[in-house]
Specification:
By secondary structure, the protein is mainly beta. It contains 1 helix and 45 strands. It has an 11-stranded parallel sheet, with no helix packed on it. A 10-stranded parallel sheet has the order 14-17-20-25-28-31-34-39-42-44, with no helix packed on it. Strands 13-16-19-24-27-30-33-36-41 form a 9-stranded parallel sheet, with no helix packed on it. 43% of the residues are buried.
């Protein structure tokens, strides 16, 4: 008995009117550090025709690659396909694209574009545009600042290993400086760090990944992209103004042997989205004003003793990556078997809130030998158990019975994009909760430069409604 196939072999005649369909007209890549490889992106090629279609050649228009490399269905695109690529009817192919842009010795981003031309067996030509930006950077590998140094905002700096400011030396970061740290890199301060950012040109400390995890989520919004800033016990007189520190393993860690001299001054700063604690200090003298400290896998602010003052700060715990996050504020006079005298933990016109029912935890060791334990909250919005205490003056409480509470105080969160905007809702009880005299003395302008006392009232937190 003879057997014969009833399956008709597919034809790849590519009729005159046959065309392919592409998932994109222009493939837009992420910004890439010049001289490095981008992540691989892809686009799809669809054949919606009734018969198969043959691609006889794929080439870059005029031979200009602009640093792009492309593989289609396993074939490397070099302008001369060894054999045709067939795409069956109602099927698809994938094109994989990468770019390695050359250094251009320019401070601004450089646009790279190339056109990929597909020639079909019927002579038709179709194209897809490839587009990416590159950024030249200044590479810093295991740098030790051994004399006073000033960095300008010429172009971003990429720190591959670590950046250490030696004792007795000062590193000054001018407005607009961007420090981008590799995943294992950190800044160690044994000398002094000065950041002279402005509202228009903040100093930024962040990770070095400029690509996206998902379409609307850049890696820059994912925590633990780098380590953080460690200020050792040798360092005093650090001052950061309009400095944005985000997406590290921690934010700023301060160690100190004395709280008599100011360790750290933060004004108009942001410390945001870290997997550990955002601001942690040991026996330090710290002042923070008009500053946002938010979203930490550990604590937002953690004070082991010291002399600490916070004015018009927003301390907000809405960290999205772990349900085991700590409270927004933790303060104590001990750790393990070590006493830390909490000379002062004072909060004026601040917001301290978060997802949980209680975002403030004061942990006091009592008994013989215990250190001082002094705290003070005035004209703040507090998400904690409402109590009567002589050291809690004119505060308002972030209760569920309020018209808005907790995350509701901040109506501009975009959780899908991991974008957190801590400007207030008009219904928040933080609006008008501040002490105008404190505002006038410290920060008559909010972090955005907006006048606070236009109506004679002041809002708690670093942003005026």
């Amino acid at each position: 008995m003879a057997l014969s196939s009833c399956v008709e072999e597919e034809k790849f005649e590519t009729a005159a009117g046959d065309r392919l369909t592409f998932s994109v007209d222009t493939l837009r890549m992420d910004t890439v550090i010049a001289g490095t490889n981008s992540v691989t992106r892809r686009f799809a090629i669809y054949n919606n025709n009734s018969d198969g279609v043959s691609i006889t050649n794929i080439a870059f228009l005029n031979g200009i690659t602009s640093g792009f490399s492309v593989i289609v269905d396993g074939s490397y695109v070099d302008g001369n396909l060894a054999t045709s690529i067939d795409c069956r009817s109602k099927d698809s192919l994938l094109a994989y694209v990468q770019i390695t842009p050359p250094e251009s010795n320019q401070d601004d981003k450089v646009l790279h574009e190339a056109t990929l031309v597909f020639t079909l067996a019927n002579g038709a030509q179709q194209s897809v545009v490839l587009s990416a930006y590159s950024q030249d950077v200044i590479w810093m590998r295991d740098v030790h600042v051994q004399t006073d140094m000033q960095l300008s905002a010429q172009r971003p700096y990429v720190i591959k290993d670590s950046l250490t400011i030696e004792e007795g030396c000062t590193l000054t970061l001018e407005a607009g400086v961007r420090l981008m740290f590799a995943s294992n890199a950190h800044m160690r301060v044994e000398g002094r760090l000065i950041a002279n950012g402005t509202r228009e040109k903040p100093v930024v400390l962040r990770g070095d990944r400029m690509d996206y995890m998902f379409e609307n989520q850049p890696y820059d919004r994912i925590s633990e992209q780098w380590q953080g800033v460690f200020i050792t016990d040798k360092s005093y007189g650090n001052s950061l103004n309009y400095c944005d520190i985000h997406s590290g393993a921690y934010g700023i860690l301060c160690e100190s042997v004395s709280s008599e001299s100011e360790k750290l001054r933060l004004e108009n700063c942001v410390i945001h989205n870290v997997s550990g604690t955002a601001l942690e200090s040991y026996n330090a003298k710290i002042f923070a004003g008009n500053t946002q400290v938010s979203n930490a896998g550990g604590y937002c602010v953690c004070l082991y003793g010291g002399d600490n003052e916070f004015v018009h700060c927003t301390i907000a715990q809405f960290y999205p990556f772990s349900g085991m996050r700590g409270p927004a504020l933790y303060y104590t006079n001990y750790k393990d078997k070590t006493n830390y005298h909490l000379t002062n933990a004072a909060f004026y016109n601040c917001i301290i809130t978060g997802y949980s029912d209680d975002e403030i935890f004061g942990d006091r060791m009592e008994g013989y030998g215990a250190g001082a334990f002094n705290y003070y909250f005035q004209n703040c919005l507090l998400n904690t158990v409402e109590v009567v205490d002589e050291d809690l003056i004119n505060n308002v409480w972030d209760k569920k019975s309020n018209k808005v509470s907790r995350a509701g105080n901040f109506p501009h969160f975009n959780l899908d994009a991991l974008s957190y905007d801590f400007h207030l809702d008009s219904l928040s009880v933080a609006v008008g909760a501040g002490d105008p005299s404190v505002t006038q003395s410290y920060y008559p302008l909010d972090r955005d430069g907006k006048r606070r006392l236009v109506d004679g009232k002041s809002d708690a937190g670093c942003y005026e409604y």
